[in-house]
Amino acid sequence: TSFGFKEVHEEEKSRMVSNVFSNVASNYDLMNDLMSAGLHRLWKDRLVSKLNPFPGMKHLDVAGGTGDVAFRILETINSVKHRAMQDVLEDNLYEETRIFVCDINPNMLNVGKKRALERGSGEEKSLIWVEGDAEALTFEDNSMDGYTIAFGIRNVTHIEKVLAEAFRVLKRGGRFLCLELSHVEVPIFKEFYDYYSFSIIPALGELVAGDRDSYQYLVESIRRFPPQETFASMIADAGFQKVEYENLVGGVVSIHSGLKL
Ligand code: SAM
């Protein structure tokens, strides 16, 4: 390609991804809003509504970055709490909720921790920030009720390893959910989207974050990510059942899901 990123070796790829997110950490949330015109918020809402979070759950959000998905999961659980006016017994259940945010980049996690403090309301207790690699998780086998990864799997070196690890840490009955930028197939929309991502995104990256290359790399990585059907087969190959996906905005993003039965 004209971007020169195609020939990157594996170690180099990991290093580059970690550089990209170190560079973008402080501008990350703003850039998300700008690049997606705020839509990423709705996509994350959709992801969490598919998860069906419940009080007391143990959940792992991998590549969790600054905590967007984790905060939503906790909000969903706590909104049920306020409606139910639960008694003391149920209160204990809420206190057992654990949402682990795992990310390879400490800068992203630090932004997330700061956000958690700013939000207050005792959420800090249920949120655990863990520096770690999606390809080699430090969590025990069969320990999680749910696993999410949002805009994260596209950047890893070995997708298969990430899926195998997701399968390993989930309990039987646990759900795997992946939100990722995917492939648009609608013809005219595809051309518009290509123009938008190859021309506008790197320009925005330069303007807002002073970093054109990182954003160009991110766009390029979307092209290389397997199409919806291929990715669904990979999830099934990792052992998941009832694998399905939902396209949002014509495939700009898709949500894949699978169950460990
Ligand atoms: N999930 C968050 C969200 O949707 O706002 C953050 C997504 S951000 C685009 C991708 C994140 O993946 C970055 O925070 C990056 O550090 C992390 N990441 C990249 N490779 C990883 C790996 N091998 N293991 C864990 N996290 C990784």
Automatic annotation (TrEMBL):
CDD domains: AdoMet_MTases (cd02440). One of its GO terms (cellular component) is extrinsic component of mitochondrial inner membrane. InterPro entries: SAM-dependent_MTases_sf, UbiE/COQ5_MeTrFase, UbiE/COQ5_MeTrFase_CS. S-adenosyl-L-methionine binds at residues 66, 103, 133-134. It catalyses: a 2-methoxy-6-(all-trans-polyprenyl)benzene-1,4-diol + S-adenosyl-L-methionine = a 5-methoxy-2-methyl-3-(all-trans-polyprenyl)benzene-1,4-diol + S-adenosyl-L-homocysteine + H(+). Pathway: Cofactor biosynthesis; ubiquinone biosynthesis. SUPFAM superfamilies: S-adenosyl-L-methionine-dependent methyltransferases. One of its GO terms (biological process) is methylation. The keyword Cytoplasm does not apply. It is found in: Mitochondrion inner membrane. It comes from the Eukaryota. It holds the Pfam family Ubie_methyltran. Keywords: Membrane, Methyltransferase, Mitochondrion, Mitochondrion inner membrane, S-adenosyl-L-methionine, Transferase, Ubiquinone biosynthesis. Its EC number is 2.1.1.201. GO terms for molecular function: 2-methoxy-6-polyprenyl-1,4-benzoquinol methyltransferase activity. It is a peripheral membrane protein. Belongs to the class I-like SAM-binding methyltransferase superfamily. MenG/UbiE family. PANTHER family: 2-METHOXY-6-POLYPRENYL-1,4-BENZOQUINOL METHYLASE, MITOCHONDRIAL (PTHR43591:SF24), METHYLTRANSFERASE (PTHR43591). Methyltransferase required for the conversion of 2-polyprenyl-6-methoxy-1,4-benzoquinol (DDMQH2) to 2-polyprenyl-3-methyl-6-methoxy-1,4-benzoquinol (DMQH2). Component of a multi-subunit COQ enzyme complex, composed of at least COQ3, COQ4, COQ5, COQ6, COQ7 and COQ9. Interacts with PYURF; the interaction is direct, stabilizes COQ5 protein and associates PYURF with COQ enzyme complex. This is 2-methoxy-6-polyprenyl-1,4-benzoquinol methylase, mitochondrial. It comes from Juglans regia (English walnut). The gene is LOC109022161.
